[in-house]
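Hi again,

Forgot to attach this to my earlier email, sorry! This is the prediction with guanosine-5'-triphosphate bound. I've pasted everything inline since the attachment limit keeps bouncing my files.
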Amino acid sequence: MACSKFEYTKSFEVDDALLPGVYIVVRIDGRGFTKFTSDHGYVKPNDIRGLSLMNHCAAAIMSDWGDIVMAFGESDEYSFVLPRNCNVYGRRSAKIATNIVSSFAANFVFHWSRYFGDTALRSPPAFDARCVCYPTLRSVVDYFKWRQVDTHINTLQNESFWSLVNLGGWGRCGKVLVHE
Ligand SMILES: Nc1nc2c(ncn2[C@@H]2O[C@H](COP(=O)(O)OP(=O)(O)OP(=O)(O)O)[C@@H](O)[C@H]2O)c(=O)[nH]1
Ligand SMILES: [Mg+2]
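Structure tokens for the complex follow:
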């Protein structure tokens, strides 16, 4: 790097290395997927094409990054676990999160047609990402229990609701359900 008088600006960057010796969970979530799924004609409540594409992206990330030990996805989100002794990118939070999420989004676009065939991609999908540290295996397990309960409740709610709508039509559903 050239030594210039402007190099001092590098000192404004903050160190965001995550604590050593703790598990790192990276969770990504689709941005505005309520609109994205609607714009692309996703089946309600669960579109197997969309879910399979998400799984494909997660599998690609896992084979690319040797150190991810587990991943779990629901709806428009996916969580990845890095082990306690992981030292990738010096455990820098932004570096880890941005690499995983940009790779996920790129895979999503790259493999879109494999799952959606002739359905054109009408807008570029985007995802946010965060790294969260968990100190014990117990807390990691509880994290996934939390996501699992969320999946369970959403699935129960959405499957029941859309079955009523699809079977009975709008006219036969109560107003409270229709506007839920
Ligand atoms: N129809 C359909 N919608 C889905 C499917 N998977 C996810 N979604 C939708 O994706 C959205 C995910 O929820 P959120 O992440 O809370 O909402 P969001 O619009 O992405 O908002 P932000 O994450 O805050 O940007 C919900 O509206 C879901 O209904 C699917 O298989 N089919
Ligand atoms: Mg979302």
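Residues 29-30, 33, 76 surround magnesium ion (ligand 2) (CB under 6 Å). The two ends are 57 Å apart (CA to CA).

That should be everything now.

G.
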